Predict the structure.
Amino acid sequence: MWYKIMEVNEWFGEMAERYRLVKDFNRAAKNSFIVGIAPTLLEAKITKGDSNYKHAFSKWLGGGFRIKALSGRSLEKSELIEIGRVVLDNEELTRKMISLGWDTLEVHANQGYNGAKWALKDYANIGGFLN
């Protein structure tokens, strides 16, 4: 019976860590926008994700990490890719996201229907040999 309590505790702990990462991302994005480092305000949230990008640790109906750019206009595809590269170029962040159950990175503007998405596992340098 006690091991079941530990499983529940671990599940809630992992969920708290996922929400903390989203909250920390949003706080950092907000502060960067306020001081003028970032030209647009970004906001992250958890979404369903793309089932084609699933991996062994994906969360069911919670594998998407969506970043919405609050730009007030439709963004060009190149601008969406540039925002996505900020996350994808940070291998430690990408690996953390994978370990917490995300499989899809999505970037959208607050206007228009265009978006970009990536399979996180393709950017985490997974599968190397151990020495």
Q: What stands out?
A: The chain has a mean pLDDT of 87. The two ends are 40 Å apart (CA to CA). Strands lie at 41-47, 64-70, 104-109, 115-119. Residues 2-35 form the longest helix (34 residues).
